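FAQ

Q: What does a record look like?
A: Structure on top, sequence underneath. For example:
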């Protein structure tokens, strides 16, 4: 059981792959038409998740090639929600179409549904996702601290933490977080992001001045400490 994820957005590629691995799916990544075609033929994945806009070609082109050679399930994952794109993707042989931004629970549910319809469900086993004392369970919207305290999260909090977990120990710029949490078409701003981080810190019992987990990096963004 292996999933090919193709997207030229590095953040989204990381987060989608992160969510799939957490659900127990081995992942193969590609960020262009050429690299995706090579990975598809070399790795022989079980399912493909394709973005439409890619360097060197399009997700439509890739979908058409894969469908000529394989009956494996194909999901189109894109920020473009126009009906014409949906119709074209389905006509080319795509099995499903998911518009960004999406919740991790929806993504995993749709992937499992595709595998179920193809008679391929059952081989993936959920894998823990942990940074230090924090364990994120995206499907159940929970975060466990030190193996004891379990917190309930909102979908927005899960999206934020998914990108932070995928970049643990590194500074994630505020603009990247806003684009991932609320989508590139807007809906979020820096004040909303500050409020979202503040609510997470309250749930975590984290101190903004001396944080154990979520650090504010002035004039840059935020960092999830990987050493705890």
């Amino acid at each position: 059981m292996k999933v090919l994820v193709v997207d030229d957005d590095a953040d989204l590629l990381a987060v989608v792959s992160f969510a799939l691995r957490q659900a127990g799916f081995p992942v193969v990544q590609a960020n262009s038409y050429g690299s995706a075609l090579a990975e598809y033929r070399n790795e022989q994945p079980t399912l493909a998740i394709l973005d439409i806009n890619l360097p060197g070609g399009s997700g439509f082109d890739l979908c058409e090639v894969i469908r000529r050679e394989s009956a494996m399930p194909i999901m189109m994952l894109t920020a473009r929600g126009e009906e014409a794109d949906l119709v074209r993707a389905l006509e080319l042989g795509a099995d499903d179409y998911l518009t960004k931004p999406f919740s991790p629970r929806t993504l995993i549910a749709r992937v499992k549904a595709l595998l179920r319809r193809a008679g391929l469900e059952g081989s993936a086993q959920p894998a823990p996702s942990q940074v230090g004392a924090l364990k994120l369970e995206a499907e159940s919207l929970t975060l466990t601290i030190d193996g004891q305290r379990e917190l309930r999260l909102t979908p927005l909090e899960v999206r934020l933490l998914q990108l932070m977990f995928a970049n643990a120990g590194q500074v994630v710029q505020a603009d990247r977080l806003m684009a991932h949490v609320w989508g590139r078409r807007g809906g979020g701003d820096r004040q909303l992001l500050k409020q979202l981080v503040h609510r997470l810190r309250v749930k975590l019992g984290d101190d903004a001045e001396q944080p154990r987990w979520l650090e504010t990096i002035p004039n840059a963004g935020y960092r999830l400490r990987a050493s705890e």
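Q: Is there anything notable about this one?
A: The mean pLDDT is 86.
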